[in-house]
Design a protein that fits this description.
The longest helix has 19 residues. The protein is of the alpha+beta class. It is built from eleven helices and 42 strands. β15 and β16 form a beta hairpin. An eight-stranded mixed beta sheet has the order 35-36-38-37-39-40-41-42, with helices on both faces. Strands 6, 7, 8, 9 and 10 form a five-stranded antiparallel beta sheet that branches. It is 16% helix and 33% strand. The protein is globular and about 70 Å long.
Length: 732
Amino acid sequence: MAFFNRHARTHLLVPLSLALAAGAAAAEGLRYPEAPKSDVVEEYPGGRIADPYRWLEDLNAAETKAWVAAQNVVTFGFLEKLPQRAAIRRRLTELQDYPRVSLPLREAGRIFYRRNSGLQKQAPLYVRDSLSGEPSLLIDPNALSPDGSISLAQWSPSPDGRYLAYALSEGGADWAEVHLREVATGKDLPDLVRWFRFSDISWTKDGQGFFYARYPEPPKGEALSAELRDHQVWYHRAGTPQAQDRLIYWRKELPKYFVGAGVTDDGRYLIVTLNNGTDPRNRLFLADLGDPRQPDVTAPVVPIVDEDIAELTVLANDGPVLFARTDLNAPRRRVVAIDTRAKTPPAAWPTIVPESPNALESAVVAGRKLFAQYLVDVKSEVRIFGLDGKSEGTLALPGIVTVAGMSGREKVDELFYVVTSALYPSTVFRYDFGTKASAPFDAARPPFDPDRYETRQVFYPSKDGTRIPMFITSRKGLVLDGSHPAWLYGYGGFAISLTPTYRPQLPAWLEMGGIYAQPSLRGGAEYGEDWHRAGMLDKKQNVFDDFIAAAEYLIREKYTTAARLAIEGGSNGGLLVGAAMTQRPELFGAAIPEVGVLDMLRYERFTGGAAWAVEYGSAQDPKQFPYLRAYSPLHNLKAGTCYPPTLILTNDHDDRVVPSHSYKFAAALQAAQGCDKPVLLRVETQTSHGYRPTDKLIEERADILAFMAQQLGAGKAGATGAPAAGSGMNVR
């Protein structure tokens, strides 16, 4: 492959201080920063493709930084004038201001969890000695980083409760550094583990150290953009420098694979997995550590399955027998037993829980029972089994909900789980094995009345006739007359199921007379691996067709009109929005692509992008280039077309989907726009792909809602409603 640059970059760029471009449209009086076009052309299997904004890929260049700063001046100048912005921000602040907790973890007989009192930038980490015990503060990330620029990314207590390993990340980037703290004294040890990424922290049972995964140190100045290669498992012993860490596992011949490692609950075995990028199929390995009280971390790592044949997620073990969730010969997944002493071929592994008509979304073993969460038309159902596979009933859940997480220990008779829905905040419950009842661990009650609203599920046909489910949340008694502003949100990829989930900004939108619609598109795992594969590689267009069909359904059934319909999505969902708005620009009244993968010809050149090639395909492959070129949002903008009002969002520390995707798309869209509808680029600082401190999150959400409200003609913000007596979730 070659690319041609006939002039040096310095001759191609006009100093940004010299010009602001009116573009095709002086949108509402906007003048966009000049984005000079270079002569860069790259050779692909399908031909030569111009890349005039290649210079925006250099995130450290002065020209790029100046252009981004100028874009933010235009964007925030526009947003600050929106009439509802201040009222929406006030209402979102009210809606965010309620106590909430994370899914607890029991370790050394104690309960560890995070709790945000409401408006704290980050949730501090607490520990309780018992369910009714007083919480003790372990780490307050707000004290470590008052402005929220350093995030508490991960934490793991040692099995004896002596130490806490915790990872800090600048701007919430995927890169993190692991520190060690003595739980009793609150003092940090000098330990520092760097270049930690895409990894758990898994302690050996003796509490003397932990396994983790890392990458080699990237080139200086390129940590946020350099391609990732050579993921490795290491062991760190507490109280020693990282230079003395032991390399445990590394497959040099598989430089783009992700590697993971975790110790079984009994401390006897180390489980190692290898994934070809984001492919859910993984290889499985095991090391026998021997006596958990004196583990042999030098034990050889031996293969159980050393080929990419199926997903293999180990749930628990009974001595040398592993219980694993798999889609091997079962696209909706089942649970099997793997005797590691035998050489049984995978096809002959005994089934413990057979494949169901419903997709097995997640599972956990607690108190020697298997809790299996299934999606029944995208609604959670938790079935309980013995480890012999015998059915023991179901966990009582309220209505249309999602079980967003489960936590338990194999020999402790309790289960913590999180329940959420579009109208109920994430709430942690504890299931008691003795009473078979659940009670809130720390009930969440936000300041709004959910009883005024409802969520209904509908099904609609996609372009090829496939039946697609969608949840629609609105005020009760909604009249279908096409008058309502609607917000359509989607994802559709990477076998990630999009289920009913509470979003703190949603009540504000509903109070403004809005509708929220969330379809479960192909590419996810809502109906198992077949559903995923129907929306990946050369079938990716199915995802966009499903999303466009959702918009057409909302218009056809008179929920809304095209002029009053906004679309939003992040990451792979940002790609979804970019593809939908370039394929059907007339269908939408506003578009909000967030941290989107928008350049499908070059995405694999940056950070972990190469890992997504198993999902998207590669532009270097002659068979895959044509379909990538056909839908790549950046490459399908047409000059003179009237695109919907667009707010593009990204973050300067996003080292997963690098911000150059959004930069290049914004520059190209501003140049192509054929009408006076605005095209804005909002770049947040000291934030990343999935992290923003609470104050910045509120600001971002307020800007999105204010933009949608103005473009779609939504009602007045701030119509509050206190929680009705008895509202909320009660689970028996």
